[in-house]
């Protein structure tokens, strides 16, 4: 059992994010919410944005509570909140307010609790390969949309409506999150190292702000695209099957990117991998915005953008562990992740509003490419200062000095 335990913990650490990653299949519901339930595109995307914002805000508190209550309790709370939120949204009949409170606030809070636990636990068990293990732990989050998008397509084909689909997601995924959460625990020999230190000195470090800027730029671009991906493809003349395939390929690319960038970071260093991911996002989204639309261009560019987007969820966590130590990950990383929450509020809604205003996604995708390019040029100047590891203070005496 001792030898099996790390494998079970890693399995749970991949399965939980696989369920949470279903949030990136949101664009599958945008058209039905618009056509059947009367939501505007901006309203539909604001729900997605609030979900991610609540996710990131709650993760700050969850990271600090992790050492006090342990990963099993925090993951279980996340699963219960997730189920409650989706059931509330379903019971409302998929109204805007019901979706905003249920999927946006409650389920988003559940994701925030459940996401930080497998990430921190897996890294504590496998400290020698932080990039690869972080990639494995969050790869499920990237691939979850492909699983759920297939399930949503099947449910629509069976004549099911949005409320029924929401209820099914809440019940099935919530149960899996709670079950897998029971396997999570910190390694006994490393229990003290997993205690979340209370310190604020990282606010004064250039590398910290470099990670904030990089996370914000990369996720703004990625969320703008993924939140609007299916209607974006259809607005450019793609068949519905092609637009749906793009959602699946984005999820696959997102998952593969998380694995690939983690391995690359171990080989060449995290700041170089971060720079490469941002520049890949700029090039792929620029091509998507300005090349003549066709099925191969659409699928290839969105897949490349997905790979770049996936790097946001492994590289910055690995960089925090590299610079500050794994024990500080649950405290410092959620603050960086707040940039993702801000991007969630701005990115998808900006895409929806631009489409509502001018009837085209070209300007929105071009903006996403520009933001990635700015990040790719500016972030290295901040992150290169972190070649030498920074030790974050862990005692009140160190904090005062």
Description:
The chain is 79% helix and 0% strand. It is mostly helical. It has a single domain, classed as Up-down Bundle (Growth Hormone, Chain: A), CATH 1.20.1250.20. It is globular.
Topology record:
Layout: H1 4-20, H2 27-35, H3 41-69, H4 71-91, H5 96-125, H6 130-157, H7 162-181, H8 206-235, H9 240-268, H10 270-290, H11 295-310, H12 315-324, H13 329-358, H14 362-383, H15 396-400
Helix pairs in contact: 1-5, 1-6, 1-7, 2-8, 3-4, 3-5, 3-13, 4-5, 4-7, 5-6, 6-9, 6-12, 8-9, 8-10, 8-11, 8-13, 8-14, 9-10, 9-11, 10-11, 10-12, 10-14, 12-13, 13-14
Please name the CATH architecture: Up-down Bundle
- Estimated structural class: mainly alpha
Q: What integer value in Å does the Rg equal?
A: 20 Å
Global mean pLDDT: 85
The total of helices stands at 15
Count of DSSP E strands?
Answer: 0
Give the SSE string: HHHHHHHHHHHHHHH
The biggest beta sheet is recorded as: none
| Proportion of residues in β-strands | under 5%
Percentage of residues assigned to helices: over 70%
The CATH first-level class comes to Mainly Alpha
The name of the CATH topology is Growth Hormone, Chain: A
Features of the shown structure:
mainly alpha, Growth Hormone, Chain: A, 15 helices, 79% helix, globular, disordered C terminus
Please sum up the structure shown.
This protein is mainly α and 401 residues long. The chain is 79% helix and 0% strand.
């Amino acid at each position: 059992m001792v030898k099996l335990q790390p494998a079970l913990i890693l399995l749970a650490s991949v399965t939980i994010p696989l369920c949470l990653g279903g949030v990136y299949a949101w664009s599958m519901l945008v058209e039905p919410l618009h056509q059947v339930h009367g939501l505007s595109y901006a309203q539909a995307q604001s729900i997605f944005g609030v979900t991610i914002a609540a996710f990131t805000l709650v993760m700050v508190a969850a990271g600090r509570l992790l050492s006090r209550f342990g990963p099993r309790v925090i993951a279980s709370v996340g699963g219960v909140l997730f189920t409650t939120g989706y059931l509330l949204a379903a019971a409302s009949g998929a109204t805007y307010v019901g979706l905003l409170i249920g999927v946006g606030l409650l389920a988003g809070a559940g994701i925030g609790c459940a996401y930080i636990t497998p990430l921190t636990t897996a890294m504590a068990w496998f400290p020698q390969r932080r990039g690869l293990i972080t990639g494995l732990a969050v790869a499920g989050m990237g691939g979850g949309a492909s699983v759920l998008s297939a399930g949503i397509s099947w449910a629509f084909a069976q004549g099911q409506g949005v409320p029924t689909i929401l209820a099914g997601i809440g019940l099935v995924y919530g149960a899996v999150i709670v079950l897998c959460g029971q396997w999570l625990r910190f390694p006994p020999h490393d229990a003290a190292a997993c205690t979340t230190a209370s310190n604020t000195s990282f606010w004064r470090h250039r590398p910290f702000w470099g990670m904030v800027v990089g996370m914000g730029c990369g996720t703004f671009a990625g969320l703008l695209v993924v939140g609007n991906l299916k209607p974006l493809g259809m607005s450019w003349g793609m068949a519905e099957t092609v637009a749906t395939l793009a959602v699946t390929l984005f999820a696959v690319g997102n998952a593969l990117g998380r694995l690939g960038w983690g391995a690359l970071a171990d080989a060449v260093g995290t700041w170089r991998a971060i720079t490469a991911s941002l520049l890949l996002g700029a090039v792929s989204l620029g091509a998507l915005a300005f090349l003549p639309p066709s099925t191969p261009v659409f699928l290839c560019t969105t897949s490349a953008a997905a790979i770049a987007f996936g790097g946001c969820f492994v590289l910055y966590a690995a960089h925090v562990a590299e610079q500050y130590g794994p024990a500080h990950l649950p405290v410092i990383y959620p603050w960086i992740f707040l940039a993702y929450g801000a991007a969630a509020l701005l990115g998808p809604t900006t895409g929806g509003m631009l489409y509502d205003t001018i009837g085209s996604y070209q300007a929105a995708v071009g903006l996403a490419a520009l933001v990635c390019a700015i990040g790719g040029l500016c972030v290295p100047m901040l992150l290169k200062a972190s070649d030498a590891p920074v030790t974050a203070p862990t005692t009140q005496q160190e904090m005062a000095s």
